[in-house]
Every structure is written in structure tokens, then in C-alpha cells.
Amino acid sequence: MTSTAPSADPRAATPPTADPVLRVRDLRAHVAGQQVVEHVDLDVAPVGVTALLGRNGVGKTSTIKAVLGLVGRSGTVELDGTDLVDLPTHLVVRRGVGYVPEDREVFAGLTVTENLRLAERRGSEHRYDLVYDLFPELEQRGTQAAGTLSGGQQQMVSLARALLNENRVLLVDEPTKGLAPRLVQEVSRVLARAAQVAPILLVEQNLQVVRDLADHAVVLTDGRSVHHGPAADLLADEELTQRLLGVHADSGPDAAGRRPADEEGPA
Predict the structure, then answer these.
(1) Which pLDDT score is estimated for 4?
(2) What CATH number should be reported for the domain holding residue 180?
(3) Which of 123, 125, 124, 104 is nearest to 115 (CA)?
């Protein structure tokens, strides 16, 4: 049975994953003195995809940034049993935490190849064969400025940067945001392949993508984790999905109600 907070049973606040690669407990985060994450517990299993879900503005992106140390944080953030909470972001990344940010954040003035080279981590194998197998177009467009790419192509660059290095876990924040349906399918395919290389903590509003990819789901409400359980069970429960996410389990692709902004596919 899945667990939904609030509950007096402490087991209801603890994700039931054994030996997670990423273990987060009582995570709190603040930006400019304002508390943006109140209390988040989650586990990411050593394989597969864990979805981090919730309505808009509940702290999903802030949770991802807090795990990385991009915002002020407290609590426990363990990678393979080692607490990272006191480490700066660059050392967290060196430990094997890959990041695909919301809104892609490519270096617009640099070429595709230069964007990838900047992502190379010292001491890690650089998996260009994997990247170009997943994204053959990036090899073809290596000399093109990243800022001239379509939104879908920029998302490819963002994903490729994270996959280039050997990582213990990938933090992927809304990778299908603003993409046309056929590009959403392509990104979903790539994420399925990526999850075979490293486990993924995925923030995603598209419930079909979650249904296709996620093994486990964590739901946030007002900066707190309030539900942990199999993703399929959550999405099969119409009442629970409506109550926690504010959408119907069988609603359209984008659970946030946004329309694709990037109708242009790869040229």
C-alpha cells in the first residue's frame, strides 16, 4: 500500500526503498531568506526512474537544486551512504550527480561541441559514443551555435551534457517542458535509455511520460513530501491523483496545462 501524509505513523514519511543510491531526509531549503522546501524525504533506487511530482510551485525544482547545493539547505543528502549536504555544488557534481536543468540553460554563444566539452568532468570517462548514438544530430551540428538550435535540439544538448560523464544519479528537471508531442516522445525514449546507464530523479508534469518511465513516485505539497509509492499505483488511483496533483490521471499530456512552445522539430 502506498503512503500519504500527514500521518502519525513514521513509516508513512519514509520511502520504502532499500539501499538507495540517493537518500534524502528532512531536506529544507531557502532562497534569499525565504523557506522554499520545508521537509522532503525521498529515495532514488539504484536502477530506474523515480518521479518527483506535484502541482506548480510546490518546490520540485527547489528540491532538485537543494540536492545539488545550488540553494541554501539543511538535512541529509546521502549519495551511496556519504552525506553531501555540507559540500559545495562542484564537489557534489564530482561525486557523480548529473543535472539537466529546467529551461535547458545551454551556452548560446558556444557551439554544440564546445557545450559538450565544457561538461567533461576530470577523472571521468567521456562517453561521446553513447551521446552521439542517442543524439546523432548533435555530431552533425557540432559547429553550430547552440543558441541557434530549436528548443528540442537544445534539450538534446542539455541531456547530452549530463550523459557525457559517468554519474551515480541524474537529476532531470522538466525535460519535456514546452516541447511538441513528437519531441516529447523522443525525449522520453532517450530518458528510458539513460535510465539504463544511471538512475534518474525526474521532475515531470507530463503524466504519460511518468506513466511510461517511472517506477516510483514522490509527491510534494507546499514544500513537503506527502506521498511515496509505485508510480503506477498513484496514476491508477483517480481520486488520489486528482487530490495530490490537481489533474485527472487520464488527462492530457501536460499535467500543468501548458501548451507546447516548441512546435519546431529538428531542422
Answers:
(1) 45
(2) 3.40.50.300
(3) 104
